[in-house]
Each structure stands twice: as structure tokens, then as C-alpha cells.
């Protein structure tokens, strides 16, 4: 990266610092007005010895404009010529809204609304030469029309992906429990469709054979289209569609890790209810506890109260809300993953 004195700075020098990425452009007046404010804030932080750095991600129209504008900034910048990195950062942080004008935001919201309106199960899953999904036993074909009116999970996964292989037994157990529950109620229905990222037909076949649900055929172009449509960046990913074919949540995986089969039907109202229940249950949890997998005492934390999104060190899955934490080690586990160990105050078992 470039410093403001046109000196090159190694990215590795930023390791361990808190970094602000400043998306801005000289031609946009609100940016030009904001830059001096940010400079003042930056210099205050620097004099107080904060371990902080800002990196300018430019949307200037040419190199001269960039040099001029960056000249007014005491921090670093991605080189103007590095279009790839700038584009990737804009995409990663969803800066499509730039320059954040009311018109631009309204246009994006309008596009989002239209996309939502157009979305039906049929136009998501069918293409011009296929109107069915694969079922068991192979080569059973299941018409897509038979899924209309159901809650449907789109499961993006692959056999070569280690977190997927760890997640799938949980998903299968949850799927079977939900199916059982619905048979007893006899009104709604639930289905999962596998979206394969496998490397070849053979691994698809052996992986899909372990799954009790449906699949799009291996190599079907719809898989890629849907990954793009739902902005799937990593697997495993579980997108939940409601009975009307609209997206209910993209957090299916996270919700299953937190609530198992109770997460069904994954709606906002249901999640709110579960969060309340969890807050209620947490009242009876011990504040401090020893867990068999960690040598220090763990503290109960919650979202906004020392906690936040985390990766559970016991089950390797995402978590949020309540957690047991060792701040010193950055160790955190789900309350459900805790196995209490009896220790004395020195930490010895
Ligand atoms: Zn866990
Ligand atoms: Zn610790």
C-alpha cells in the first residue's frame, strides 16, 4: 500500500492493528467534507498511541485526482492502479450503495424489492429443460411443483468441505425430527434441496446417498445461479424459503446450530421467541464455570454484554447470543456445548 508520502508500506506491517477502510472519492462533496473530520479523529487517536490505521479505498476518476485527494490524508491507500483489490473490497463490504445518495439507496432498495417480488420456488429451481429434482432411491425424479407451499431449505455444500461433513449429521437429525413433528401435526411440510459443489459425479453420488432429502442434478447451472442470487460466499450454507417461495433467512445453518429442530420454521417471529426463551433459560445458568475442555474459568456472556458472534471452540460452529468465554485466551463455547468440570480455585482438576 502507499503512505501519503508515496512510500510503500507492507500489508504485513498492519498485522495486529485495528484497520479502518475508508471508501471515498474526491468528486463527491460529502466525502470531501468528511475527510477533514476523519483526519482530526485519526490524529487524535495517533497521538493517544492507539494501534489504529486507516486505508483509503479510492473511487477517484484518475490518478491525478487520487494523488491530490490522498495527499490530504495522513493514512495509507490501496494503490490507484490496483483495480482488482478495490473492486473486491467494494464487493466484500457491499459498497454498491456508494456514493450513498438518497437516489442511489432508493434505487438499490427498489431493485431488492423487485427481486423479492419476482422470486418464486418455480423460477428459482426450474430451468428450460428441467422441472424436477433428484430423489431417493435413484433415479427417482420429484416434480418441483410438488414443493410449492412448503418451507424449503437450499443446502449449499460439498463432500470435500470439512465443516460441511461436520455439519451434516446435525442437519440430518434435525431434518428427521422436523419431518416427524410435521407428520404428527399433519398440516405443513418441509423439504431440503442439496446444491452440490462437489468436484465430480462420483463424489456427488456418494455424498447425496447419505442425505435423506432431494437434490439438483450434479453440475446443473442453476446451482451457480442460485449461489449468486443468494450471495453465498461460503459453505455449508442453508437458505430457507417460506411457503410462498420468498426468502425467510440466509442464516439457516446458524439457527440450526443454536436451536436444532426448534428453529423450524425459521421465521423472524420464531427466532424472537427462541431468543426470549434462551434469555429466560440463561438466568439459571452459572455465571462462572470450569469447562472440561479449557483450563481457565469461563464467564457467561451475552450479545452486547461482553459477547457477540463467535466460533464455538467445542463444536467449531458459529454462535451468537449467550456464550461461555475466557477473554484472555479468546476461548468461547455455546452454553449447550459446556461440560462442567470440577476444579479448585487454582484451576487444577
Ligand atoms: Zn458449540
Ligand atoms: Zn483461558
TrEMBL record:
Domain Thioredoxin intervals: 1-114, 132-283
EC number of this enzyme: 1.8.1.8
PANTHER family linked to this entry: NUCLEOREDOXIN 2-RELATED, THIOREDOXIN
Gene3D superfamilies hit by this protein: Glutaredoxin
Catalytic activity: [protein]-dithiol + NAD(+) = [protein]-disulfide + NADH + H(+); [protein]-dithiol + NADP(+) = [protein]-disulfide + NADPH + H(+)
Pfam families: C1_2, Thioredoxin_8
SUPFAM superfamilies: Cysteine-rich domain, Thioredoxin-like
Keywords: NAD, Oxidoreductase, Repeat
Provenance organism: Fagus sylvatica
UniProt record similarity statement: Belongs to the nucleoredoxin family.
Top EC category: oxidoreductase
Lineage top rank: taxon: Eukaryota
GO molecular function terms listed in the Swiss-Prot or TrEMBL record: protein-disulfide reductase [NAD(P)H] activity
Name of protein: protein-disulfide reductase
